[in-house]
Structure of Flavin reductase (DIM6/NTAB) family NADH-FMN oxidoreductase RutF:
Amino acid sequence: MTANAPDFDAAFFRSALGRFATGVTLITTQSHDGPQPIGLTISSFNSVSLEPPLVSWTLSKKAASLPHFEKAERYVIHVLSAQQLHLARRFATGSQEQRFEGIEVGRSPNGAVMLSDPDCAAWFECYNLCRHEAGDHIIFIGQVERCERSFHQPLVYHAGDFDLTPSHEPLSGD
Ligand SMILES: Cc1cc2nc3c(=O)[nH]c(=O)nc-3n(C[C@H](O)[C@H](O)[C@H](O)COP(=O)(O)O)c2cc1C
């Protein structure tokens, strides 16, 4: 059996998908041919499994950073807070050099490039466990080795825009 052809176009599909609100992440790793930091904005992050701890995200086959993430041993997924909107915008355009200009980077416990910014809502250090081809994207499955979280209000993406939900009080605990 095979799937029926869609009765909608790509623009309508994108608009329908946009009704699903997501958080926003910034994923970093190291260049495959040097120590340069690589990073981009990703909203396709998802939890997959608690034991073992697995997460997923998808990367366009057209992304310039794809070869770096395919070869990376580890990467760090930063869940952005509402006060990091500027980072979400900056890491979705321009060159890698422009994205990291003036940005302080450090290393995760197992040595992956990560942001030093304390304003992240959470971060997950991932071993690059496996990848699956799916249409025009690659699905990355990461095995989480270390993670940390704060209770900053998260950045929210919805209908192609950032919805900061400013009336919400920051969470104070689990
Ligand atoms: C809020 C937001 C979410 C995004 N989510 C994704 C995503 O899940 N997957 C993806 O491939 N690109 C996503 N992008 C687009 C990339 O950030 C953008 O294409 C970036 O320039 C790719 O960088 P690169 O070409 O250096 O790899 C998103 C952009 C924004 C603003």
Observations:
- Residues 22-157 form a domain with the Pnp Oxidase; Chain A fold (CATH 2.30.110.10).
- The helical segments are 10-17, 66-71, 85-90, 96-100.
- The longest strand covers residues 122-134.
- The chain has four helices and twelve strands.
